[in-house]
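Hey there, shall we discuss this one?
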Amino acid sequence: MSTEKPPSIAPKRPTGPAPERPSGSVGRVSAPTQTSAPVKPAAGAPVAPVAEAPSSGTSFGDRLKKVAGSAKDAVARPTSDKSEPPTPPAGDDGGPRRVRLSISRVDPWSVMKLSFLLSVAIGIMMVIAAVVVWNTLNEMEVFVRVNDMIKTLSGQSDYTLVLDYASFDRVVSLATMIAVVDVILLTALSTIMAFLYNIVASLVGGLHVTMTDD
């Protein structure tokens, strides 16, 4: 057997001196510097005015006088320049507005109070009217003439039934009793009608009312 080694296939390193590397940073590419050019505005675009620097000659006193002068001008402005309160819009045709409402429910307690006060006022008016009518008829001697006519027709010389029943005390007492009954009946009937209205309104929708403003 031969003892010779096969040839090596590894690349041979150069035996000469190593090449010199550049002193700059390795792996970095320096971008070329660009000079900023002035940007021109597009055609038709609004150009904002350049704010002027405040003049150094304006003192605090001058600015205070200017503010005071503007305040005096605002105070001396006539009152006609002040804006008037807006008026409510009218209807479509320029006339008064119309609003359609429906009374869907009535409070029975408020109806009872209102009807009681109204019935009391009506009762007082009835008593006063009875007193005024009795005094008028008495001044005209109507009761005496009616009594004399009945006495003549009946032939009774002591007939005084008309004068007894048409006396002032009896008339005022009867008018007062009628007024009290009127107060009780009107108050009770009005309250019952309020309950009935609420029941009917829940079924048919209540009473419709059209209101207009002047």
